[in-house]
Amino acid sequence: MSGNENSTESRTLSRIGRRPIAIPQGVTIEIKTGAVTVKGPKGELTQKYHPEVKVTETEGQIIVERYSDRKFHHALHGLTRSLIQNAIVGVTDGYTRTLELMGVGYRAQQSGAGVSLAVGYSHPVEILPSEGLTIEVEGNNLVHVRGLDKQEVGELAAQIRKVRPPNAYKEKGIKYQDEVLRFKPGKSAARTA
User: Fold this and answer.
1) Final residue before a domain boundary, out of 66, 92, 118
2) Are 160 and 145 in contact (CB under 8 A)?
3) Which domain holds residue 119?
4) What is the pLDDT of residues 34-71, one digit of tens each?
5) How far apart are the C-alpha atoms of 67 and 75, rounded to whole Å?
6) How many domains does the chain have?
7) CA distance 109 to 126
8) What does the alpha-carbon distance between residue 175 and residue 167 come to, in Å, rounded to a whole number?
9) DSSP 165
């Protein structure tokens, strides 16, 4: 690889990492060795980070710096910045992931803190949220997963979707509300065409 190509790579690798993170009003940040604690109106989150990255707070902003131009440090740089940014958004606004049930007779029902899913099995499937997460049912076919931690919200939403993933042929299943599905015609439809 020529020197010119190498310099282009280092310029484009971590644009995200270089961006400072603005600290919104009402949010307090405590930086310790290897972790950042973020407190906001909705709660508190602690985000760990790799010791190969330096995190500092200056003039109402968080700056994430890397120690070298090695590819490993580039990857950590952008990742650490994104995780801290997600924690700040979590304690200010929170995260929501909405799932939609498709299919005749498919429905969701609030069951205490969790949700009871009737999705074509002989029995309803019960799912309970872990600590710090809430599940809300809207109507018969919408399930909202809410929480501070983006990863935990995504994991619980994926667990609910996994109960009955969308069927490409029958247009049935559980999908994310913003998910775009491509349905396939069956063999009989292909024969008549």
Assistant:
1) 92
2) yes
3) 95-177
4) 899 999 999 999 999 988 899 999 888 999 988 888 88
5) 12
6) 2
7) 10
8) 10
9) P
Angle at 106 between CA 152 and CA 96, to 5 degrees: 25
- Looking at the structure, do residues 137 and 164 belong to the same domain, yes or no? yes
Record the tokens describing residue 175, joined without a space. Answer: 């999908």
Q: Is 119 domain-assigned?
A: yes
Whether residue 122 has pLDDT greater than 80 = yes
Under a CB-based contact definition with an 8 Å cutoff, are residues 45 and 87 in contact? yes
Distance between terminal CA atoms of the chain? 53
Please give the Cα distance from 27 to 47 (Å, whole number): 15
| Domain annotation covers residue 182 | no
- From residue 77, give the alpha-carbon distance in Å to each of 44, 52, 67, 68, 91: 23, 9, 9, 10, 22
Q: The tokens 């590819």 sit on which residue? A: 71
Residue with tokens 């042929």: 169
d(CA 78, CA 13): 9
**Two structure tokens written together for 24:** 């919104």
Q: Is residue 193 assigned to a domain?
A: no
- The structure's pTM equals 0.81
Q: What is the DSSP secondary-structure string of 26-57? A: T-EEEEETTEEEEEETTEEEEEE--TTEEEEE
Residue with tokens 């909705």: 42
Round to whole Å and give the CA distance between 118 and 102: 11
pLDDT reported for residue 59: 87
